[in-house]
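Below is a concrete protein record.
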Amino acid sequence: MASKVAVIAIIIERGSSVEGINGLLHEYSEYVVGRMGVPYRNKGINIISVAVDAPEETIDELARKINALEGISSNTVCSVG
C-alpha cells in the first residue's frame, strides 16, 4: 500500500491530554518522521506539529484518535501523490 506524507497540527488546551497524545504518538512511532512541540505559555496551550509517512488509512486512524481526546484540536494536511 502506498504511503503519503502528512502533517498533523495539534493544539492541546488541557494539560491532562498531553499523556494521551504522547501515548498515541508512541503507538504510531514507526510512521512518525518528526515532531515539534511549542509551549505557548501566554495562552496556556501547547502546539505540536507531527510529520508522518504512512498509508492514508493509518493517517486517518491516528487523526481520529487524536481528535477523540478531550481538550484537543487538530487538523491534518496530506500530500497529493
About this structure: The two ends are 13 Å apart (CA to CA). The first helix runs from residue 18 to 27.
